[in-house]
TrEMBL record:
UniProt-recorded Gene Ontology molecular function terms: alpha-1,4-mannosyltransferase activity; GPI mannosyltransferase activity
Lineage: Eukaryota, Metazoa, Ecdysozoa, Arthropoda, Crustacea
GO process annotations (BP): GPI anchor biosynthetic process
InterPro entries with a match to the protein in the record: PIG-M
Protein name according to UniProt: GPI alpha-1,4-mannosyltransferase I, catalytic subunit
Keyword Transmembrane helix part of the UniProt annotation: yes
EC class (word): transferase
Pathway: Glycolipid biosynthesis; glycosylphosphatidylinositol-anchor biosynthesis
Documented EC number(s): 2.4.1.-
A GO CC term attached to the entry: glycosylphosphatidylinositol-mannosyltransferase I complex
Family: Belongs to the PIGM family.
Subcellular localization: Endoplasmic reticulum membrane
Alphabetized UniProt keyword annotations: Endoplasmic reticulum, Glycosyltransferase, GPI-anchor biosynthesis, Membrane, Transferase, Transmembrane, Transmembrane helix
Length: 415
């Protein structure tokens, strides 16, 4: 039986490698199309952030600071990653993001295999990321979400393997690159409790060797990378690359349900406004982390936390959707949901997004005052996301402890 499992594993490995090659080829085609499109169209295919990355890399190549480029508000190491844009070709960074995209798909496959899913199930779920049109579009336009995708998935994969010091190191790097993965600290920490779904609150909180290693790895790597940024670029990094994101208030139109409120109150100081917008987000993210923060349900914990964090955030852009779409394939095998219902929910989410984009187009490109319609569509999109989360949680299958033992025995055999 073990030999059959191994043979099946090898066959699936060859199959996923073929699909990864195809997925990478598709992305290269889109990159080439983007180059052609940008030469002949006023509305560019390449994301504005990619130009900011490249300009930051240009400053670094001259021995300067990436923060000398106006609106560069990312980790300085992103500019270092984009040096091939200057030294080789403008599209080199997009190729890097495409490679990372494919790596994320492979990591999804490996995590599901570790969870005890069948080869075919793991393969099909990995394709949900690899062939997702939104994912392909974001990476080939030059957005860096693929970097975060790989960092988050490596963190999760290592945590499930109980390689907790290394998992913490990648978690700290993730938080350094973008602050949002800090919400994963709680469920990952709780998932390392010896008793699965422990009813004892003390048992959940008390440290063990795996929890201690996770905390040490996270704090150490975050401090090292952040300290290097401060050492190289001083207060400029602290203000532009770190503090800016903690105090950011964006009054431009975006998917956030709070955008119009922040827009009309931009010139006023309203006591308690920040608490009213941040409070529900904090409470729900924490509650979901505690509720599903165990080894069996860790995938759901991270997905539900991310969906709530994005939906309740004060600023929501289309790139943020990838933060939870990345984790969706990891919970699909545990959903007791018909294909019809899944299809209807997907169509509903897509319609809600397109409905928002329609008035946004007239505001941005036709200069019509459509702020109120955009706000109403933001409310509809908010409700759609919350309904989607409720449907997913209600369809989620809770597994008994014996399945946990069997899945780990199965994963050890395959390895």
């Amino acid at each position: 039986m073990v030999l059959m499992a191994k043979g099946s594993r090898f066959g699936s490995t060859e199959k996923i490698q073929n699909h990864l090659a195809l997925g990478f080829f598709v992305r290269i085609v889109f990159i080439l199309y983007g180059e052609h499109h940008d030469q002949f169209n006023a509305l560019k295919y390449t994301d504005i952030d990619y130009h900011v990355f490249t300009d930051g890399a240009r400053e670094v190549s001259k021995g300067g600071s990436p923060f000398d480029r106006h609106t560069y508000r990312y980790t300085p190491f992103m500019a270092w990653m984009m040096l091939p844009n200057i030294l080789m070709h403008f599209t080199a960074g997009k190729v890097i993001f495409s490679i990372l995209d494919c790596m994320a798909s492979r990591l999804i496959y490996e995590i599901l295999m570790l969870d005890g899913q069948s080869n075919m199930t793991a393969l099909r779920c990995s394709y949900l990321w690899l062939y997702n049109p939104m994912v392909i579009g974001v990476s080939t336009r030059g957005s860096a979400e693929a970097v975060m995708a790989v960092l988050v998935l490596i963190t999760l994969y290592l945590a499930k393997l109980k390689v907790t010091l290394l998992s913490g190191i990648f978690l700290g790097i993730s938080i350094h690159f973008k602050l949002y993965p800090i919400i994963y600290c709680l469920p990952i920490y709780l998932s390392l409790t010896n008793e699965l779904r422990s009813e004892s609150k003390l048992q959940l909180i008390l440290p063990n060797r795996h929890k201690i290693r996770l905390v040490i790895g996270t704090i150490t790597s975050f401090c090292i990378f952040t300290g290097l940024g401060l050492y190289m670029y001083g207060e400029q990094y602290l203000e532009e690359g770190f503090l800016y994101h903690l105090t950011r208030i964006d009054t431009r139109h975006n998917f956030s349900v709070f955008f119009y409120l922040l827009y009309i109150t931009a010139d006023y100081h309203i006591p308690g406004l920040s608490l009213c917008t941040f409070g529900p987000q904090l409470v729900l993210v924490t509650a979901l982390g505690i509720k599903f923060g165990n080894h069996l349900d860790l995938n759901l914990a991270l997905f539900s936390q991310t969906l709530v964090f994005v939906t309740f955030n004060k600023v929501v852009t289309a790139q943020y959707f990838l933060w939870y779409l990345l984790l969706l394939p990891l919970i699909v095998p545990r959903l007791d949901m018909s294909w019809v219902k899944a299809g209807l929910l997907s169509i509903l989410w897509f319609i809600a997004e397109v409905s928002w984009l329609t008035p946004a187009y007239f505001l941005e490109f036709q200069a019509y005052n459509t702020f109120v319609p955009i706000w109403l569509e933001s409310i509809a999109f908010f409700c759609c996301n919350m309904g989607l989360l409720m449907a997913i949680i209600s369809s989620y299958t809770m597994l008994p402890y014996c399945h946990h033992q069997n899945s780990h025995l199965h994963s050890r055999r395959l390895r």
